[in-house]
Amino acid sequence: MGDEISTLMSKSKNKTVLLRLRNKTTIQGSLQDFDVHMNLTLKDAEDISDDTKTILGTILLRGDNILAISLPKDES
To answer: Which of 15, 31, 34, 45 would be a feasible disulfide site paired with 56, CB 3.0-4.6 Å?
Structure first.
């Protein structure tokens, strides 16, 4: 199971992902890197929780704070 998740995440590098965090925040950004703890580095990240977008830039999200990740559709 861990290998499947790692493969999916690897295929999503440099693509836009959508994240739902524990504090009800929704973040979108380009996935740059991840580790076994699901700590993620996002580039061009934006908080899209409200009606307005808040630009966050490059961020590191700790895996403990992530509830859900929406990956881009497989283009193969």
So the answer is: 45
User: Looking at the domain assignment, is residue 59 inside a domain?
Assistant: yes
Going by C-alpha positions, the residue among 62, 32, 56, 33 that lies closest to residue 44 is: 56
Q: How confident is the model at residue 14 (pLDDT cuts 50, 70, 90)?
A: very high
Domain that holds residue 6: 2-70
Q: Which strand (E) or helix (H) includes residue 57?
A: strand 54-61
pLDDT bin (cut points 50, 70, 90) of residue 75 is: low
Q: Residue 6: which CATH number? A: 2.30.30.100
Q: Span 38-66, mean pLDDT?
A: 95
Contacts of residue 50, Cβ cutoff 8 Å, sequence gap at least 6: none
User: How far is 76 from 69, CA to CA, in rounded Å?
Assistant: 20
